[in-house]
Amino acid sequence: MDLNIYILAGGKSSRMGTDKATTLFHGKQMIQHVIDIVTLISSNIFILSNHESHTQFGFECIKDEIKDVGPAGGIDAMLHHTHQKKNILVSCDMPFLDTLSIQKIIHASEDYDITIPLLNNYPEALIGNYHQSCKSTWRSELLKGERKLSTLISNFNTHFMDGNELQKQNPLLFSNFNSLKDIEAHGQ
Fold first, then answer.
1. b/e per residue 57-69 (b: at least 16 CB within 10 A)
2. Could you tell me whether strands 122-123 and 60-62 are parallel, antiparallel, or unpaired per DSSP bridges?
3. pTM of the entire predicted model
4. How, if at all, do strands 24-25 and 28-29 pair?
5. Helix (H, G, I), strand (E, B) or coil at 162
6. How many Å apart are CA 147 and CA 178, to the nearest integer?
7. What does the pLDDT look like over 147-158, one tens digit per residue?
8. For the purposes of burial, counting CB atoms within 10 Å of the CB of 79, is it exposed (0-12), middle (13-18) or buried (19 or more)?
9. DSSP, residue by residue, 63-92
10. 116, exposed or middle or buried, with CB in 10 Å at 0-12, 13-18, 19+?
11. Where do the domains of the chain lie, and which CATH numbers do they carry?
């Protein structure tokens, strides 16, 4: 299967106070939990990051072309880097990610520009499939000043998967860590 996987890890981690990708969780750097899962699905792995230190993980780091626009800039960088139709985006702060959930997203994405879970009416835009054909419109909207992911994805033929169904199989799937308190709450 022609598939790229992009790990979003280039944020400022302002709430964490330190680089969240390299923050330890259960004895491993947070991003390593995600790498361990996605390498079971594809060997085409890239890290969306402006941090030079992230090259330590052995994958090509893709920098934002449009700076300081948050996750939308990372997605833009992914769309302009890829040559694949299927591009799985995952966030570095989701250590409970699993292969079955990613495979369900891949299989549900056939006829859509974007496929992401919808959990309790909230789009989980940092785990999903983004078709390479989105790149021009995504960039155009960014250049107009749009930064909000839910607004950006509304410009495309987006399939919202039932996130509650994915969560039934893995109750911690959408757990992400934005602060050291979040990590402590999960037994670190």
1. bebebbebeeeeb
2. unpaired
3. 0.92
4. antiparallel
5. strand
6. 19
7. 999 999 999 999
8. buried
9. --SS-SSTHHHHHHHHHHH---SEEEEEET
10. buried
11. 3-185 (3.90.550.10)
